[in-house]
TrEMBL record:
Single Gene Ontology MF annotation: 4 iron, 4 sulfur cluster binding
GO cellular component: cytoplasm
The species this protein was found in: Polynucleobacter victoriensis
Domain called 4Fe-4S ferredoxin-type: residue spans: 1-29, 31-64
One protein family per Pfam: Fer4
Keywords: 4Fe-4S, Electron transport, Iron, Iron-sulfur, Metal-binding, Repeat, Transport
Protein's name according to its UniProt entry: 4Fe-4S binding domain-containing protein
InterPro entries per UniProt: 4Fe4S_Fe-S-bd, 4Fe4S_Fe_S_CS, PSI_iron-sulfur_center, YfhL-like
Length: 84
């Protein structure tokens, strides 16, 4: 599953630099996660880094982008060109 940022986001700016896939960008009012780039940090880290640093816990799984670990790994490989 890709992650998403809810409207509880306080725009603290800590999540964006933590994303290894550059999936997090500033939207109109809050940060947003591009589900086509989000691998939940699979291939990079054991846990999603944005969730680790978020002070308000506003980054849940995105219910409209359900993906298995294997699908996330395939996306990681496509994004990075790495075989991990």
């Amino acid at each position: 599953m890709a992650l998403m940022i809810t409207d509880e986001c306080i725009n603290c700016d800590v999540c964006e630099p933590e994303c290894p896939n550059d999936a997090i960008t500033m939207g109109l009012t809050i940060y947003e996660i591009d589900p086509n780039k989000c691998t939940e940090c699979v291939g990079h880290y054991d846990v999603p880094q944005c969730r680790q640093v978020c002070p308000v816990d506003c980054i849940p799984l995105h219910p409209e982008h359900v993906e298995t670990h294997d699908q996330l790994m395939t996306k990681y490989r496509a994004l990075t060109g790495k075989e991990n």
